[in-house]
Amino acid sequence: MARRHWQNWDAPGVVDWLDADWPGLPVDPTLSSLVDLVEIHHGSGPILEVGCGTGRTHEALMRRLVLRPHGYVGIDVTPAMVERARARYPQADFRTGDLLALPFADGSFGSVVCTDVLQHLPELEAPLAEMLRVAREHVFLLLWLRKADAPRRPPELVPIEVPEHGVRTSFLEVTWSDEEVIAACRAGGGEVLDFQVVDGAGHDLGLVRVGVAR
Ligand SMILES: C[S@@+](CC[C@H](N)C(=O)[O-])C[C@H]1O[C@@H](n2cnc3c(N)ncnc32)[C@H](O)[C@@H]1O
């Protein structure tokens, strides 16, 4: 898989930084609300998580669905993330792979879940189309949304420094508008069925349930 210049998730310290901020805390409230949507609406079949990182969402999903266990596969483009996820949750199926070319047949999963990834990609339509391709019922998204009165800005590389974890890199960041998300889902073969917006400081957060429309 080709490495793109803006994918800096393997920069020194990033895995430790992402891994450090949740084990001591209760589940992040926004992530918990997304998991509510999954718990209510996931029907049958395994769950695929794309851009699974070190396993935060896996943990939230598995704890919530402990009485209704489903198959789970997590996929992430960064080998160091996958290694950490496997070390943390050795019983789970984590794989290295690109969400733009998922190595699965059409409709292989009941649901696809994607948290905190789409705000770091330069486009929306191709990733959503790929998630919708492998889902039979739903795609669940947690992503940054542009505030209603904020101007549209192209994706930009934003420098990030986290001295306590030795992180000094840059990540592509973009905030999508509500309309862009809805249109991209439709273009990819989905229909937005729930769209919740949580007010945030620099950007809002969107919790989105997309139904597969084919
Ligand atoms: C901000 S982290 C979020 C991780 C996890 N979803 C969470 O909420 O904790 C973004 C993740 O997306 C992954 N990622 C970025 N581009 C990707 C791609 N094209 N395919 C698969 N994973 C990707 C990165 O490696 C990183 O682990």
Overall SS class = alpha/beta
Quaternary structure classification = single chain
Helix content: 25-40%
First and last CA, distance: 29 Å
- Work out the strand percent: 25-35%
Taking all Cα atoms into account, the compactness measure Rg is 16 Å
**Total number of β-strand segments?**
9
How would you explain this protein's 3D organization?
This protein has helices at 14-20, 29-41, 56-64, 79-88, 125-134, 178-187; strands at 47-50, 72-76, 93-96, 109-115, 135-145, 156-162, 167-173, 190-198, 204-212. By secondary structure, it is of the alpha/beta class. It has a single domain (14-212), classed as Vaccinia Virus protein VP39 (Rossmann fold, 3-Layer(aba) Sandwich), CATH 3.40.50.150. The chain has a 7-stranded mixed β-sheet with strand order 3-2-1-4-5-9-8, with helices on both faces. A two-stranded antiparallel ribbon has the order 6-7. Helix 3 (56-64) links the parallel strand 1 and strand 2. It starts with 13 loop residues before the first helix and ends with a strand. The structure holds S-adenosylmethionine (SAM). S-adenosylmethionine binds at residues 7, 9, 50-53, 56-57, 76-78, 81, 98-100, 115-117, 120. Residues 7, 9, 50-53, 56-57, 76-78, 81, 98-100, 115-117, 120 line the site of S-adenosylmethionine.
